């Protein structure tokens, strides 16, 4: 029988196993972009379970351990792979409910419930993924239990079936076959099952080969990235809102040009009555004075980023690797609507705040926020109805799980798959319009956006008809490879040229933390010359990993 203590140790062993092999899973990313984070997401999701069960006593029941682990995983789930993994274990916990210990038949039934729950969570389940791997594992366990109910043998059959199913994933999913890899999520699940089997069959907990702090280590945006106070060119983050004066109808183009000359990470939004400004500058007084020419100041915030950086550096190493989970603070609703948006980069943080986001959750590619991160932001939003913008396809499932856990307010997930889609959705929101009209308007705004993304190749590859060398810049149109060049501007221009149409009215170039304002303006000039009927502008997104995120509308 699998006792509670054995299931506890099995979860710890599984978490250690996936942590040891997470980089091997990360590199299975089909596209050679530097955002292969399946292994990291699964490892961090399992780490939440490890932290929750590590101190449980030996006399606890298997059902209780499974329930505690599954609850922790659901809240700590990161990325689609982490959410699916958490649901597999939630189904297993349902199957073990009320069981002091589990024989093979109970374990097989629990695995089967895990597979069913995972399939139901995915809107369009696809074979050749982690779903196939867990389904085949459950089927093998059920078949074995017709003759034998030893739980260790049952789980060994499940593990073997999982590894065999994993090897077949390229035959089921053509994109895997072309990339010559197996499914990353399925591979991660096999490592997790291997860790559990080590305990069930041999009584041995897999040891952690990496330092405990490795999971929380930040991912550098680019190789050779400068880190330190010296890298902050403009010291003062300056934000303010100007209410236009009586009769003031002058265009903000001149103000925007001045802001660009005075700093970087410029955001200048004019909605007719108020002007919202964000800029990093060394002359905040001059910037505010220039804004006063348009009317009176409503709010002003100036922060010394160099000082903030020093304080952050002083605190390095203070936080434990696995902190004790605290219940999110719930604020009482004070208004009808609120917004939670996911984004990475100071420019995007400021832009979403200016557009009305109550909370901006830090995250995106390579750093998917957990279900609990999103849930905490939702609870901190003082609104009866909270719109959540995931802004990344790998964050949608975590947002959906957060919505199911938020029981004191209505949560509506607007399935934005890119940050430019999130910006478009917020711009289309009308506080005075009915709820359904706003949902329809935001979804329509999303459909009008084509997103061009530019990043560098993390490895040599052949994708979408392109021979790609490590370090080259790739331009993608809604995730499909559109251009490969040595220079990010060349890749961006070629991708935009494919994405834009004669009807295109607006092209917004959000440049990342590896791109200078001057470089971005050079790209804007090339695009504007090619598409003279469209308005083209550059906005500092400050995002890591991606040189450019470009909205084509």
Quickly describe the structure:
The protein is α/β, with parallel strands linked by helices and 553 residues long. The chain has 20 helices and 16 strands.
Structure write-up:
This protein has helices spanning 4-20, 22-26, 38-53, 62-76, 79-95, 104-121, 130-144, 151-172, 174-179, 184-202, 253-262, 284-292, 305-314, 346-355, 371-379, 396-405, 419-427, 435-447, 488-499, 517-530, and strands at 236-244, 263-270, 274-281, 295-304, 335-343, 359-362, 383-389, 410-413, 450-456, 461-463, 466-468, 473-477, 480-485, 506-511, 535-540, 546-552. Mean pLDDT is 85; it is low at 211-231 and 309-325. It has four domains: 4-210, DhaL domain (Serine Threonine Protein Phosphatase 5, Tetratricopeptide repeat), CATH 1.25.40.340; 235-304, YebC, transcriptional regulation domain (Alpha-Beta Plaits), CATH 3.30.70.980; 335-447, Phosphotransferase system, mannose-type IIA component (Rossmann fold); 450-552, Hypothetical Protein Tm841, Chain: A,domain 3 (2-Layer Sandwich). With 553 residues, it is of the alpha/beta class. A six-stranded mixed beta sheet has the order 13-12-9-16-14-15, sandwiched between helices. Strands 2-3-1-4 form a four-stranded antiparallel beta sheet, sandwiched between helices. Strands 6-5-7-8 form a four-stranded parallel beta sheet, sandwiched between helices. Helices cover 46% and strands 18% of the residues. The chain has 20 helices and 16 strands.
């Amino acid at each position: 029988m699998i006792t509670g203590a054995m299931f506890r140790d099995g979860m710890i062993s599984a978490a250690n196993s996936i942590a040891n092999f997470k980089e091997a899973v990360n590199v299975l990313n089909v596209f050679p972009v530097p955002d292969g984070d399946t292994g990291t997401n699964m490892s961090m999701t399992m780490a939440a379970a490890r932290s929750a069960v590590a101190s449980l006593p030996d006399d606890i029941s298997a059902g209780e351990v499974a329930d505690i682990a599954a609850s922790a995983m659901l809240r700590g789930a990161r990325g689609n792979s982490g959410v699916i993994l958490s649901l597999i274990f939630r189904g297993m916990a349902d199957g073990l409910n009320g069981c002091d210990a589990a024989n093979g038949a109970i374990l097989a039934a629990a695995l089967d419930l895990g597979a069913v729950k995972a399939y139901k969570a995915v809107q369009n389940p696809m074979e050749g993924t982690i779903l196939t791997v867990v389904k085949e594992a459950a089927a093998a366990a059920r078949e074995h239990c017709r003759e034998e109910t030893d739980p260790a043998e049952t789980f060994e059959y499940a593990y073997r079936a999982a590894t065999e199913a994993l090897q077949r994933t390229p035959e089921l999913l053509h994109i895997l076959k072309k990339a010559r890899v197996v499914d990353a999520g399925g591979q991660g699940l096999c490592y997790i099952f291997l860790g559990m089997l080590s305990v069930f069959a041999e009584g041995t907990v897999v040891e952690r080969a990496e330092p405990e702090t490795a999971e929380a280590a930040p991912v550098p945006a680019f190789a050779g990235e400068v880190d330190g106070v010296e890298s902050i060119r403009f010291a003062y983050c300056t934000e303010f809102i100007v209410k236009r004066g009586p009769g003031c109808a002058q265009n903000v183009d001149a103000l925007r040009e001045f802001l660009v000359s005075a700093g970087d990470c410029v955001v200048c939004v004019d909605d007719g009555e108020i002007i919202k400004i964000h800029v990093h500058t060394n002359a905040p007084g001059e910037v505010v004075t220039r804004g006063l020419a348009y009317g009176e100041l409503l709010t002003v915030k100036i922060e010394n980023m160099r000082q903030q950086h020093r304080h952050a550096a002083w605190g390095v190493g203070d936080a434990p690797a696995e902190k004790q989970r605290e219940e999110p603070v719930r604020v009482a609703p004070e208004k009808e609507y609120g917004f939670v948006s996911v984004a990475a980069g100071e420019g995007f943080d400021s832009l979403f705040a200016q557009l009305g986001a109550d909370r901006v959750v830090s995250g995106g590619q390579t750093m998917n926020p957990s279900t609990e991160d999103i849930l905490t932001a939702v609870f901190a939003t003082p609104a009866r109805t909270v719109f959540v913008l995931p802004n990344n396809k790998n964050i949608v499932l975590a947002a959906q799980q957060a919505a199911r856990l938020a029981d004191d307010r209505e949560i509506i997930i607007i399935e934005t798959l890119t940050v430019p889609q999130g910006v478009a959705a917020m711009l289309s929101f009308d506080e005075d319009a009915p709820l359904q009209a706003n949902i329809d308007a935001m979804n329509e705004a999303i459909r009008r956006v084509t997103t061009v993304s530019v990043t560098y190749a993390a490895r040599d590859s052949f994708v979408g008809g392109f021979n790609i060398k490590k370090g080259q810049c790739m331009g993608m149109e809604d995730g499909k490879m559109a251009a490969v060049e040595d220079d990010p501007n060349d890749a961006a221009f070629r991708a935009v040229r494919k994405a834009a149409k004669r009807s295109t009215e607006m092209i917004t170039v959000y440049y990342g933390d590896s791109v200078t304002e001057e470089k971005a303006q050079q790209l804007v000039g090339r695009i504007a010359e090619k598409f003279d009927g469209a308005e083209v502008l550059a906005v500092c997104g400050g995002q890591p990993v991606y040189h450019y995120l470009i909205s084509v509308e």
